[in-house]
Amino acid sequence: MSSKLLRGTFILTLGTIISKVLGLFYVIPFYAIVGDDGTALYSYSYISYTIFISIATAGVPLAVSKFISKYNALEEYAVGRKLFKSGIAVMLGTGILSFLFMYLTAPMLADVTLSRSTDASDVRPEDVTTVIRAVSFALIIVPFMSLIRGFFQGHQSMGPSAVSQVVEQIVRIAFVLVGAYVVLNVMNGSVVAAVSVATFAAFIGAIGSLAVLVWYWFKRKPHLDKLLEADKGTMDISLKEIYKEILLYAAPFVFVGIANPLFQFIDQITFQRAMASIGQGAQATAAFATLNFQTHKLVIIPVSLATAFSLTLVPSITKAFVENDRTSLRKQLDQTFQVLMYLTVPAAVGLSLLAEPAFTVFYENKELGTEILRIYAPVAILFALFTVTAAILQGINEQRFTILSLLTGLLVKLSLNIPLIKLFETKGAVYATALGYLAAILINLYVIKRFANYRFSFVARRITLIVLFTFLMGAGTLAVYGAVSELLSPAAKASSIVIIVICAAAGSAIYFYLGFRSKLINRLFGDKVDKVKRKLRLPL
């Protein structure tokens, strides 16, 4: 891999990480401003928006990038420019249509979300309609903005995408926090108005991102025009063929991208009614906010890092499969599953053990929040497994089964959600999500076993070892947590931060010590571990 591509990949990864970190920590002041009702309203609109935007744009940057890279390598630069010029109009058109559809169907989405019974909640369907319509404006800009990012990435220019992501997040978050605060505390407005401003921030953030991309376009255009002058001009591909190829590239990413929002949408349309049917309608809004906004934001933390590490191995899986190198394919699959589980399992278990101080730091000390986070955190393992197994299916050219596994998982979730909520209240929704993801993952694993002729026996033994290390880490963390809790209260934010730092340090020390002593970490990360040891002057 060239140094330019490595540098570009690093820049794009860094931009993504910064964007995700910003997207995580803004919830602390936002929750303080709008509370449970506000975050519930925000969730109601954003889940629907995420589904719309995923369908409209998921995979577009990667698909366009892959397409342009392919034809640039053939020195057919005009093909990529042809896609770009026509794509701007197409994506702007689909964006406007998506906006109109979401805006006009907002009342229907609100009605399926909430019951109109008077005792069910302080949040009304009219309120949900308002915030959904506020966020829908972003659909006008985001699709063709994604096309521009893909165009730059196809030219191995990752800076524009990375910078625009970070700028988009900064502008959006600033508008969310300042807007919500001004509406509530300066203008004495309603929570609905404040959240509407907060969701409209997606549109403002997209404008900020687009401004960055336009600036990069004018800055890089002379170089891009020089490439166009060097075009061989031997290929004349019709727009129909271009978009057919783009759709084939993008389709798998769409299904993986909308999986989590669809699971959340099932909660959105069933949770409130199920809670109302067991006499818990008055608590439904606060409980939904706790489930699908507050705890979900924290549960995603262990998923992001582990998935990023694991997915870097997928191109190697694709190469081995195409070359029919079964030995290399098996090794790459072994490595991928082990890295994923080695990083995700302890992080998810640690978050579960430290649920009370973690929830207190981000929001407040709340019994329901602690209870839900404790059982929801381990589901992060399933989120990560689904993402990685779906990527592997693409690597072995069996991405069609991703649709089957996702639909099966959604059917399990839809079938069990209401019965489990009636039995276990808010926890029931978590159990239904876990069972739905488990069903989808089992199908993906079966397909991998059959079509890649892969045996899971070796990985199963390694995962057993990882689970043992995690158990020992958990026992040590609990002991430290018990001792520290005698001196510091997890009910206060400041002391909760100290508790998390001490317990996380103790747990990490135990876990990585076991990994070093058993040489497991060396087998997973190879030479990188030895380099770290040399820098820290540790014995090899």
UniProtKB/TrEMBL annotation:
Its main location: membrane. The chain crosses the membrane at residues 12-34, 46-68, 88-110, 130-148, 169-187, 193-218, 246-266, 298-318, 339-363, 375-396, 403-423, 429-447, 459-484, 496-514. Keywords: Cell cycle, Cell division, Cell membrane, Membrane, Transmembrane, Transmembrane helix. It comes from the Bacteria. It is a multi-pass membrane protein. The keyword Transmembrane helix applies. PANTHER family: LIPID II FLIPPASE MURJ, PST FAMILY PREDICTED COLANIC ACID TRANSPORTER. This is Cell division protein. It comes from Mesobacillus campisalis.
